[in-house]
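To assess whether the prediction recovers the assembly geometry, we first specified each molecular entity separately, as shown.
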Amino acid sequence: MNTSNRRIVALAGGVGGAKLADGLAQLLGDRLVVVVNTGDDFEHLGLHISPDLDTVMYTLAGIANKEQGWGLSGESWTFMEQVARLGGPDWFRLGDRDIATHAIRTGRLRAGDTLTAITADLCRALGISSQLLPMSDDPVRTTIHSRGRALPFQDYFVRLRCDVPVERLSFEGAAAARLNPLVDAMRGDEAPEAIILCPSNPYLSIDPILSVPAMRGWIKATGAPVIAVSPIVGGAAIKGPAAKIMQELDVQPSAASVAAHYRGLIDGLVIDTVDDFHAADIQAMGIATNVTGTVMRSIDDRKTLAESCLAFLQAVRSRAR
Amino acid sequence: MNTSNRRIVALAGGVGGAKLADGLAQLLGDRLVVVVNTGDDFEHLGLHISPDLDTVMYTLAGIANKEQGWGLSGESWTFMEQVARLGGPDWFRLGDRDIATHAIRTGRLRAGDTLTAITADLCRALGISSQLLPMSDDPVRTTIHSRGRALPFQDYFVRLRCDVPVERLSFEGAAAARLNPLVDAMRGDEAPEAIILCPSNPYLSIDPILSVPAMRGWIKATGAPVIAVSPIVGGAAIKGPAAKIMQELDVQPSAASVAAHYRGLIDGLVIDTVDDFHAADIQAMGIATNVTGTVMRSIDDRKTLAESCLAFLQAVRSRAR
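The predicted structure of the complete assembly is given in tokenized form:
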């Protein structure tokens, strides 16, 4: 379908993003670069945990726990039971095998290695041919503002199970965060052929990536067509609190709202067949639409949606010429 | 045997020290304070590991792995297998349950808690009534100097299996290390009734404790009788490289050499029946001797040796009066 050797960049957060990234990886292999949200990263039990990097990494390696939506399949919980026995914090579950990722990462970060270099080595060990890049090697921390409180992301997402209203989001450290140097280097002859915003939560997963000051400028500078896949299908999120957050922020949860959110950045939006009736509104914003099945239930669904995205990109690019 | 309510302090390193500490704990309960070597502490895979604190803690909790000499009994190794699979360092073995201790400790240290406070909470969770105190809350790092190289302790002890000659030892950070404030507070009415140097390696386990500048002065200031138990029996160490190190440092491995090493600090030395012939030499140094079986094979042996130590302390104190 695509005979170019130029790379394709996907911006991704957790589960939904990881699924499309996996579909793209099946088609593109080492031509795929996934730029991953690190706004969810945090320190817990002394370990540096990068939930979205791990979800994408485990998904592309075929070892993710599909039922759970995080962590590894076939995991054991001996560590966690002992943490509870010792009176330690057990609200964030870490499996015995999963901790190996966090411990290796933490040890190397403390020794001065970058998250980029560590992620590359972990991916190599797991046999992943696509390139996974944290959006930045500098810390950016997504913070939820609710009822006068500033909640670190995992407190909101895991400990409180998103059960407080989001009034505002901020990305602490973003102003000083440098774009991942390997992203920044994709310019000129090395510029990607296309950029895809995966169906991740626009507020919690994609906005933190876009909060890195040089990110939007880099996207423009590549001259590459940019498409997004709507994570909102039929007014609801496939998974996670995207629709709930949109309501709390007084935004109608719809594919059209996703288009409005990304207006000025994207050339096209992939929407689900059930959202066909939004297509005209979205096109009126100057954004092309591709209507297809976007719900990824099987491994094959991931590949099918990825194929649809690549075909849509060709159409978007032709239109731009 | 002992009707006082005053505390007894034991100085201890790893396995041998932990066994006698356990014997003393069986007799003394919350009257026992174990001051533990932290010169072996190190950072590994992002975790702060305190091997001697853990060995004493696990031994007193009755959950130590007796065959292995470190870690927990009935341990599983899922984490370690995954570290190896991911290409991480696997020369220092960490069991799935054991990591809970390190992770809780590391998380709290990073949050600003002291090793003393963290150890107290871990001991409480494990049902230990005796008090375990790190020698200092400041970092002291035992370093082995061999053939022009300065080896961190665990590199020497675990990675190289002690298979390089020790030319010199240093205790990095010791000059600036403050005595554990809870040790320092045991003065006047709160001074301990007696101090026991456990049969730990004098060079690798007890000397680091004594390297904390205020330690020797505190011991003197308590006015308490001080005895040691020789870790050298019949010219050899029960476990570990004590005898090997003595030879490398041109010291005859013997109970008499242990007495000479501690001269000026101890009032009495407990030696094994096989070392009876050294008693006169040791007494000539002004050090009383107690000849008894010192090899602890069973849990009961620990208690028996502890009883012998307490009886010997009574005799040493009577003599001093």
